[in-house]
Predict the 3D structure of the following.
Amino acid sequence: MNFEAVKAIYKFEMARTFRTSMQSIVSPVISTSLYFVVFGAAIGSRITEIEGVSYGAFIVPGLIMLMVLQQSVSNGSFGIYFPKFLGTIYELLSAPVSSFEIVVGYVGAAATKSLILGVLVLLTAGFFVPLRIDHPVWMLIFLVLTAITFSLVGFIIGVWAKGMEQLQTVPLLIITPLTFLGGTFYSLNVLPPLWQTISLFNPVVYLISGFRWSFYGIADVNVGISLAMTLAFLAICLAIVAWIFRTGYRLKA
Amino acid sequence: MQQPIISISNLSKTYASGFTALKSVDLEVMRGEILALLGPNGAGKTTLISIVTGIVNATTGTVTVDGHDIVKDYRAARSLIGLVPQELTTDAFETVWATVTHSRGLFGLKPDPAHIEKVLKDLALWDKKDNKILELSGGMKRRVMIAKALSHEPRILFLDEPTAGVDVELRKEMWALVRALRALGVTIILTTHYIAEAEEMADRIGIIDKGELRLVENKDELMRKLGSKQLRLELQEPIEVVPTGLDGHKLELSGDGTTLTYTYDAHGARTGISALLADLSRVGIRFKDLQTHQSSLEDIFVNLVRDGK
């Protein structure tokens, strides 16, 4: 195991994050917090409670997930796309590092950044809405698993993308709708039965449901199923990444 | 010098586009030598380097670096190698210090600020260490790339067109650097299409054309073997044809009839010069000047590549 290389990649990526901290930390926290202001303080009081939880508080787990998902995908994709785009990837390919170490470095850094953001947003939410966390350990587990899984998704997109456009449209066209339709703002129970069934094909539903359960003990799907689906999704991403490195797909001629 | 540090056998590469960049190349690079790979653009030089350094997968063939297979034992093989690619590809927003330190880490070595400092000083980059790379000139960026390659103390250094687009001064500095590295026992493989560079630097020269390694020779031997000398005679009065009395000498007459060129092997037992001069005076041709010319690597190269067409 080339620990120095993992450390080097991780530090390099984290330095990039902190160098651009306005863009990569401050702005996502502010834009997510706007939801709390609008839905928590302004409109939230006019919406009925959901299963005993005020609407403003109900959407907090979903919004944190929304941001962690988006940030993980964007961090994970930019981290590997940039060297590809600049050509500096030659160094990574010629270095004595295994694919596993490369992934740990890049995905680890991307996930770390999302986690920092997730915690910052959680703290910010506390100012606007009454928060309660019933299962803090499970909350952390879901947060970490989600950050890692979607940083992997980002990594895959970053390897696959041939241009900036692809890099940005996939998150916008796929990830954002999946999150909005994944129960960030509503409980699946309010949907007609057909849409409830369709929603179950959306992997984000399981993440948000499990995550919300760790806050308030309420869930759309059983928490065990949530965890299993999250792990399954992680396994699928890992398999794709393994395939990318075995074949050299879009990395090596 | 006699022990190969890199052994390449039956190496070929066909890209997904169907383009065959290398055709069954065999090559041994000796420990501690400077090998120059010479060839026109698109000959396969960069592909060869890219395969050895792990950037491109080979279609067939094997490569070992100091006994380590580059695929099965890639860690050991790659640890020994530093690569300076042809394109100026650097980060933009990182500082010189950060990017060079990063490279050392990638190669699995513990941080060593003293070594990085030495490398940056050797490359006249020390006063730029805290500058962002995008603030540097092209020549400095190239030096940063060399610094990155040297950051992990490689035993083998690949320089792909190190002096392309580099001014004369920097080129001389690079040559000095390459010599200094060789003095430390580093094996150096450089590609170039500046023949003067190969002639100046290399111990051995390989010529690649259309994906085939046409020859690999000790530079001096190559020059001796293929190098012929020419004797040029400027005539006092132009002549229209070479007189029949001089048929045996295979002379070439210039278009304007004022110069006769005689090509001979400088290392042959008999150059034939005295016989030629005697014959010239016998047929009454007088000349006002004579000069000899040693064919350069450039002539040899052009001949080889032209013959291949």
Observations:
- Residues 3-247 of chain A form one domain.
- Chain A touches chain B at residues 2-5, 7-9, 11-12, 15-16, 19, 86-88, 90-98, 248, 252-253 (CB under 8 Å).
